């Protein structure tokens, strides 16, 4: 390979075992040694040994002292003659120390490895297992060794490899062999590859070739006795001074945890879905009982024969034949009071229309001015996460104590119409994905460099990027910015694609170098100083459903991912430069994809600000759709309110002006509600603008239809003025309007108890809007209605009221076609016994079926649905879902009063030697071993373990001579620290406090890999008070497994919280057992944090939140209905039963129409409860006040009077507007508004107009004697038909 090979960046880990090689061997003869002394230094600065075939020489006392450090076992039996001198022993200790920085955390592994190094370096019997193959002469004509053969037992290599195979590197969460097996990752490493790499002279760290010749046990060799050093298993202590390896470094040391719980088995009965079986059984039992009761034990109804709705009243004799109960009297008095009150109220406002309209308009203007103070919330966090929610508080804590998670600018580049590449290697042909095409890679680099040069009014990437190796306050070069890109393997140098070499006749190209980098990224550090993780830089290499493993073939990628990390800030004002640059970045990428993108590329991109920007754009893009929807509903209302009997009177009998006035009142109530909360300071959301007008229209328009059409069907009494007639009409329909408005308002006000800000704001805004709408209807609309009635009486034109028409011969009330259809056709058909029974069976079957499938409703919100169909972010989400092959990072935050300088407290946290078996990091490690259940993919990085290892390497810690302050370890002018250790080989308390900040400021490199600035500079928050170091909080970073669906995300959150809870309980229990006061121990807590938690926490309790919201809403409706219906429990129960059925059946529709349960659909469900009141309460109130005799007759009478109003006032009004929503660009509108609104209206109408009348005919409230007495005493003309008209 050419000198530009990526191997030039071989890291510290390679020093490890190669250092061992640095002790020469000399040709074996009858003498004992093959080398002695150092006689050459190569171009890399490595010492090479002198050949020597004599006997072992006596070691000087100073040399014997050096041997005790690592090779003390050679001094057994007072041995003092060796095949090495003091200089070689010094080199041995120096180089083994580099290996020790990684492997010392597992004493057994390190001891096993060092023993063979000590043997071939100094053994007095080297010639038994070593042979010098080649020597050369230096410029002084002195021979030095260039190649040796080392005969070694496979038993030793296998056992040593096994003892080291699980040693972890806390800084990266990976295994030591990921760094120490050359081009092979830990999963691809084996004993032979490991030892061969340690002896490979082609690397820049091995002074001469060592060829390990392995021998099977008991194999015969004529000339050599294979070296077979005694080994110690990793779960056994090396000596009384050194413990066994910890659990995180040796699986055999891990405690036996509980067995993995079995995967949840679907709830089945007889192999079938249990819910279906149970509900089927319930259905058949109930239906059989119902049919038997209906047809066998109850006589037939008059409805079976030519029934006509005639409103026959109950006789006086029947009225007085029973004594009134207390609640009947109370109910009658309540109804009388409400009717009297609304009659007087209506008469007053009908008599003073001018004053009423001026006062109402003034009030609306005053309230509406509050809109100037309203704040629209678009931040998704503030919309969907409660300020007091656990995830929100934890996010605030993390962002405050540490810096917020980086801002991501990401580009996914997929290859299009490019073939895979088959490349011949010495190991056979390798297949590479199409993205590794030379021209493709060149274009990717051009794009990457173009992004680095983006200038947004003076702000460039280098000004805002995350550069972990930069010093605070120093200028940052763009090469120091973290860019996760394939070009990091090549140092962003396009000439590296021209590198070539030859290996046994096989041409080596950039693909060979790339394969080595992919196999071990630490061999090819990027310009910013860190590795490029292939799981982040590549995409599309995993089959669907697979997780990352050690055998993952990254080289099969069909997409490249460029990720630029930008610094984030808790204070939004500090983000101005980043926001400006991101806006320019989006413009650059949009232009690039339109004009410069190669035909072989498909590019998806996003910036950190893009989601919020697109949500704002989405809300504006569908404004026209919403306006058209509302306009259609307005037009229908304005036209359908009129009662035109003759074409020549069309402009007189129409009520377009009144309809427009009614719509204006609805909009005024919404404006007033928004204004009220503008004064209060409660932020609004876009949902309020989009949903509440629809809701208020549903409620308000129905009341308008009932009021107007009741008047149209009424005959004015003799000597009764128009004002008195309207007052009397309001007295009859007012209680019903009050019932529905109060029920819905209370429903929404109680819905305001929700912790979710968007739901809470919607519920409160809606509740106030409905109250204001009701008040404006019984005041301003009554006045408008009076003026319109007078206009019609005077034969003035609608709209152009100054024009008078011809006076009609007579003005009589007339029944509309819709009313005639209901009373003459629909009601008689519905009230037939067989039809009623069929309706009950069909609707009960519908209910049972919906209950059975409701648990299958998906929870979550697909983020793709939130984007407009033409959004570049939507394309990014789709590409991310297809190519994402790594999970997000998760931080386990440890906070509280923990004494980190105390060894016992350290043992509660760390994962290395002497640490507890249930320590914080050990528990996270154990969780990562069961990633399919815990969603933790890798062990957590550990600053405390790396700090301990950092203090062991003498060359890592340095201080300035004059001040004693921190000094980078690369600075040769500084002095080395003299860190005193305790019995656990950890820094003493004072030393811990002094040198931890040094560790967190030191940049890592090959010589000091454990330096913590890059990995942990922001992971530990500490303060110095009274010359003591106080660690307030720190985090340990791990990774989740690949998460794609909403369920993956919230289950990962749930699992991380379970792990943290167990850790917290352990910490608090151990601290109290160690004598720490309870109050102090309880301040110690571990919680998990990841950027997505705040959005998905709601789904952990979505079902319980939904049932609670529905339960509170339905309960409030029951209470209001019970009171306003004159304490009629039957009527209240019927309303609640019907509303519950509507909501449950809507849930069934959600499952079959792929509508998931989330905050948006929860808002719609709360609204569905409110609108359902309109479908139910008017009809039930009419039933309760009906003067007919039997329940069937009363049900028929109420449906005849109210059915047409419900149908025309709610169903038709909404149906026309809803259909327009199907054409919205926003997918969220199509799914959650069009589909759910359509379901609400259709299901609500079906239950209100079909099921409810039938249910009333079976279990409606019995006739109230007190009410009958009241009606019998009233004048006959008080009867009214509360009915609809076409």
Automatic annotation (TrEMBL):
<feature type="transmembrane region" description="Helical">
    <location>
        <begin position="274"/>
        <end position="298"/>
    </location>
</feature>
<feature type="signal peptide">
    <location>
        <begin position="1"/>
        <end position="31"/>
    </location>
</feature>
<keyword id="KW-1015">Disulfide bond</keyword>
<feature type="transmembrane region" description="Helical">
    <location>
        <begin position="354"/>
        <end position="374"/>
    </location>
</feature>
<dbReference type="InterPro" id="IPR032190">
    <property type="entry name" value="NPC1_N"/>
</dbReference>
<feature type="transmembrane region" description="Helical">
    <location>
        <begin position="834"/>
        <end position="854"/>
    </location>
</feature>
<dbReference type="GO" id="GO:0030301">
    <property type="term" value="P:cholesterol transport"/>
</dbReference>
<dbReference type="Pfam" id="PF22314">
    <property type="entry name" value="NPC1_MLD"/>
</dbReference>
<feature type="transmembrane region" description="Helical">
    <location>
        <begin position="763"/>
        <end position="787"/>
    </location>
</feature>
<feature type="transmembrane region" description="Helical">
    <location>
        <begin position="729"/>
        <end position="751"/>
    </location>
</feature>
<dbReference type="Pfam" id="PF16414">
    <property type="entry name" value="NPC1_N"/>
</dbReference>
<keyword id="KW-0443">Lipid metabolism</keyword>
<keyword id="KW-0472">Membrane</keyword>
<dbReference type="InterPro" id="IPR053958">
    <property type="entry name" value="HMGCR/SNAP/NPC1-like_SSD"/>
</dbReference>
<dbReference type="InterPro" id="IPR053956">
    <property type="entry name" value="NPC1_MLD"/>
</dbReference>
<feature type="domain" description="SSD">
    <location>
        <begin position="622"/>
        <end position="787"/>
    </location>
</feature>
<dbReference type="Pfam" id="PF12349">
    <property type="entry name" value="Sterol-sensing"/>
</dbReference>
<keyword id="KW-0753">Steroid metabolism</keyword>
<keyword id="KW-0153">Cholesterol metabolism</keyword>
<dbReference type="GO" id="GO:0012505">
    <property type="term" value="C:endomembrane system"/>
</dbReference>
<dbReference type="GO" id="GO:0005319">
    <property type="term" value="F:lipid transporter activity"/>
</dbReference>
<keyword id="KW-0813">Transport</keyword>
<keyword id="KW-1133">Transmembrane helix</keyword>
<keyword id="KW-0325">Glycoprotein</keyword>
<keyword id="KW-0732">Signal</keyword>
<dbReference type="InterPro" id="IPR004765">
    <property type="entry name" value="NPC1-like"/>
</dbReference>
<feature type="transmembrane region" description="Helical">
    <location>
        <begin position="1107"/>
        <end position="1125"/>
    </location>
</feature>
<feature type="transmembrane region" description="Helical">
    <location>
        <begin position="656"/>
        <end position="680"/>
    </location>
</feature>
<feature type="transmembrane region" description="Helical">
    <location>
        <begin position="686"/>
        <end position="708"/>
    </location>
</feature>
<dbReference type="GO" id="GO:0042632">
    <property type="term" value="P:cholesterol homeostasis"/>
</dbReference>
<dbReference type="GO" id="GO:0030299">
    <property type="term" value="P:intestinal cholesterol absorption"/>
</dbReference>
<feature type="transmembrane region" description="Helical">
    <location>
        <begin position="1236"/>
        <end position="1259"/>
    </location>
</feature>
<keyword id="KW-0445">Lipid transport</keyword>
<feature type="transmembrane region" description="Helical">
    <location>
        <begin position="1159"/>
        <end position="1184"/>
    </location>
</feature>
<comment type="similarity">
    <text>Belongs to the patched family.</text>
</comment>
<feature type="transmembrane region" description="Helical">
    <location>
        <begin position="1132"/>
        <end position="1153"/>
    </location>
</feature>
<dbReference type="GO" id="GO:0015485">
    <property type="term" value="F:cholesterol binding"/>
</dbReference>
<dbReference type="GO" id="GO:0005886">
    <property type="term" value="C:plasma membrane"/>
</dbReference>
<dbReference type="GO" id="GO:0008203">
    <property type="term" value="P:cholesterol metabolic process"/>
</dbReference>
<keyword id="KW-1207">Sterol metabolism</keyword>
<feature type="transmembrane region" description="Helical">
    <location>
        <begin position="623"/>
        <end position="644"/>
    </location>
</feature>
<protein>
    <recommendedName>
        <fullName>SSD domain-containing protein</fullName>
    </recommendedName>
</protein>
């Amino acid at each position: 390979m050419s000198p530009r090979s990526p191997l030039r960046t071989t890291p510290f880990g390679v020093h490890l075992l190669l250092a061992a090689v640095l002790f020469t061997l000399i040709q074996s003869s009858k003498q004992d040694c093959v080398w002695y002394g150092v006689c050459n230094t190569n171009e890399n600065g490595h010492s090479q040994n002198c050949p020597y075939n004599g006997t072992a020489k006596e070691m000087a006392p100073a040399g014997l002292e050096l041997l005790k450090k690592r090779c003390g076992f050679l001094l057994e039996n007072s041995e003092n003659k060796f095949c090495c001198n003091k200089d070689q022993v010094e080199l041995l200790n120096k180089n083994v120390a580099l290996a020790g920085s990684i492997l010392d955390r597992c004493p057994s592994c390190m001891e096993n490895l060092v023993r063979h190094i000590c043997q071939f370096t100094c053994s007095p019997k080297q010639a038994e297992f070593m042979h010098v193959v080649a020597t050369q002469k230096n410029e002084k004509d002195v021979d030095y060794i260039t190649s040796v053969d080392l005969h070694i037992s496979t038993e030793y290599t296998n056992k040593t490899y096994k003892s080291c195979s699980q040693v972890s590197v806390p800084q990266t969460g990976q295994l030591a062999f990921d760094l120490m097996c050359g081009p092979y990752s830990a999963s691809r490493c084996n004993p032979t590859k490991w030892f061969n790499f340690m002896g490979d002279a082609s690397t820049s760290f091995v002074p001469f070739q060592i060829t390990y010749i392995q021998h099977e046990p008991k194999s015969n060799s004529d000339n050599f006795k294979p070296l077979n050093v005694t080994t110690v298993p990793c779960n056994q202590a090396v000596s009384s001074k050194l413990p066994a390896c910890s659990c995180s470094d040796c699986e055999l040391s891990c405690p036996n945890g509980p067995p993995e719980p079995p995967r949840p088995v679907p709830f089945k009965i007889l192999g079938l879905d249990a819910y279906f079986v149970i509900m089927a059984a319930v259905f058949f039992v109930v239906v059989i009982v119902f049919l038997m009761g209906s047809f066998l034990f109850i006589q037939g109804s008059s409805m079976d024969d030519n029934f006509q709705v005639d409103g026959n009243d109950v006789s006086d004799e029947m009225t007085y034949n029973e004594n009134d109960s207390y609640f009947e009297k109370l109910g009658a008095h309540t109804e009388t009071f409400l009717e009297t009150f609304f009659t007087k109220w209506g008469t007053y406002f009908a008599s003073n229309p001018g004053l009423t309209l001026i006062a109402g308009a003034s009030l609306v203007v005053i309230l509406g001015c509050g809109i100037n103070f309203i704040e629209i919330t678009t931040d998704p966090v503030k919309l969907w996460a409660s300020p007091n929610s656990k995830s929100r508080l934890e996010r605030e804590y993390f962002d405050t104590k540490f810096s917020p998670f980086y801002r991501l600018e990401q580009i996914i580049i997929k290859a299009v119409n490019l073939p895979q590449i088959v490349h011949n290697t010495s190991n056979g042909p390798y297949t590479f994905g199409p993205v590794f095409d030379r021209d493709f890679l060149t274009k990717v680099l051009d794009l990457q460099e173009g992004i680095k040069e983006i200038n947004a009014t003076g702000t460039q990437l280098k000004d805002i990027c995350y550069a972990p190796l930069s010093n605070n306050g120093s200028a940052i070069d763009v090469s120091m910015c973290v860019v996760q890109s394939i070009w990091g393997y090549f140092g962003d140098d396009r000439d590296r694609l021209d590198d070539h070499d030859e290996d046994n006749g096989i041409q080596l190209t950039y693909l060979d170098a790339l394969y080595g980098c992919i196999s071990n990224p630490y061999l090819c550090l990027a310009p910013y100083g860190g590795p490029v993780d292939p799981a982040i830089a590549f995409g599309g290499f995993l089959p669907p459903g697979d997780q990352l493993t050690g055998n993952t073939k990254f080289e099969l990628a069909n997409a490249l991912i460029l990720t630029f990390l930008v610094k984030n800030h808790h204070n939004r004002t500090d983000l101005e430069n980043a926001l400006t640059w991101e806006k320019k970045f989006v413009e650059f990428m949009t232009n690039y994809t339109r004009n410069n993108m190669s035909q072989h590329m498909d590019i998806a991109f996003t910036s950190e600000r893009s989601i919020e920007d697109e949500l704002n754009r989405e809300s504006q893009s569908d404004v026209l759709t919403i306006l058209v929807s509302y306009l259609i509903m307005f037009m229908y209302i304005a036209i359908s309110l009129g009662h035109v009997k003759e074409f020549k009177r069309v402009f007189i009998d129409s009520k377009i002006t009144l309809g427009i006035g009614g719509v204006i009142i609805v909009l005024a109530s919404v404006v007033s509600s928004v204004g009220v909360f503008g004064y209060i300071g409660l932020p609004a959301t876009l949902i309020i603008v989009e949903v509440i007008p629809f809701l208020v229209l549903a409620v308000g328009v129905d009341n308008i239809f009932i009021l107007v059409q009741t008047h149209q069907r009424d005959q004015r009494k003799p000597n009764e003025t128009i004002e008195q007639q309207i007052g009397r009409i309001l007295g009859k329909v007012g209680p019903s309007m009050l019932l529905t408005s109060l029920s819905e308002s209370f429903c929404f006000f109680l819905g305001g108890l929700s912790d979710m800000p968007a739901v809470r704001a919607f519920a409160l805004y809606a509740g106030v809007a409905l109250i204001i709408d009701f008040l404006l209807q019984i005041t301003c609309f009554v006045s408008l209605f009076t003026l319109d009635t007078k206009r019609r009486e005077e034969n003035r034109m609608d709209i152009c009221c100054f024009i008078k028409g011809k006076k009609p011969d007579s003005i009589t009330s007339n029944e509309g076609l819709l009313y005639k259809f209901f009373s003459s056709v629909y009601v008689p058909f519905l009230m037939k016994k067989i039809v009623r029974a069929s309706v009950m069976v069909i609707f009960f079957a519908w209910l049972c079926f919906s209950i059975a499938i409701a648990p299958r409703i998906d929870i979550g919100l697909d983020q793709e649905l939130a984007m407009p169909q033409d959004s570049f972010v939507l394309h990014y989400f789709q590409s991310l879902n297809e190519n994402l092959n790594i999970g997000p990072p998760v931080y386990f935050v440890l906070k509280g009063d923990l004494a980190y300088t105390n060894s016992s407290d350290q043992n509660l946290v760390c994962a290395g030697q002497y640490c507890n078996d249930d320590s914080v990091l050990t528990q996270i490690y154990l969780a990562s071993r069961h990633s399919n259940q815990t969603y933790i993919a890798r062990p957590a990085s550990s600053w405390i373990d790396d700090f301990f290892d950092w203090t062991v390497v003498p060359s890592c810690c340095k201080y300035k001579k004059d001040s004693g302050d921190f000094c980078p370890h690369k600075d040769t002018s500084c002095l080395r620290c003299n860190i005193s250790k305790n019995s656990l080989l950890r820094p003493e308390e004072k030393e811990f406090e002094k040198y931890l900040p040094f560790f967190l400021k030191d940049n890592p490199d090959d010589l000091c890999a454990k330096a913590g600035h890059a990995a942990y500079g922001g992971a530990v928050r500490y303060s110095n008070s009274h010359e003591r170091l106080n660690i307030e909080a720190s985090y340990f970073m791990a990774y989740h497994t690949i998460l794609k669906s909403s369920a993956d995300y919230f289950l990962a959150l749930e699992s991380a919280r379970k792990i943290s809870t167990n850790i917290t309980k352990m910490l608090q229990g151990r601290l109290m057992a160690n004598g720490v006061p309870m109050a102090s121990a309880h301040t110690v807590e571990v919680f998990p944090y990841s950027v997505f938690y705040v959005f998905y926490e709601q789904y952990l309790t979505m079902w319980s939140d939904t049932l609670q919201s529905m339960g509170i809403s339905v309960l409030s409706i029951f209470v209001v209905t019970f009171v306003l219906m004159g304490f009629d429990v039957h009527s209240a129960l019927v309303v609640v039963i019907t509303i519950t059925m509507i909501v449950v059946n809507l849930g069934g529709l959600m499952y079959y129409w792929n509508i998931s349960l989330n905050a948006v659909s929860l808002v719609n469900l709360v609204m569905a409860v409110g609108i359902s009141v309109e479908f139910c309460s008017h009809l039930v109130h009419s039933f309760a006040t009906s003067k007919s005799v039997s329940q069937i007759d009363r049900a028929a009478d109420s449906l005849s009077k109210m059915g047409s109003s419900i149908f025309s006032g709610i169903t038709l009004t909404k149906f026309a507007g809803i259909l327009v929503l199907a054409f919205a660009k926003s997918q969220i509108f199509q799914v959650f508004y069009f589909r759910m609104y359509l379901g609400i209206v259709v299901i609500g109408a079906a239950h209100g107009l079909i099921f409810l009348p039938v249910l009333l005919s079976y279990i409606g409230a019995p006739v109230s004697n007190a009410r009958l007495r009241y009606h019998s005493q009233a004048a006959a003309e008080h009867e009214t038909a509360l009915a609809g008209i076409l």
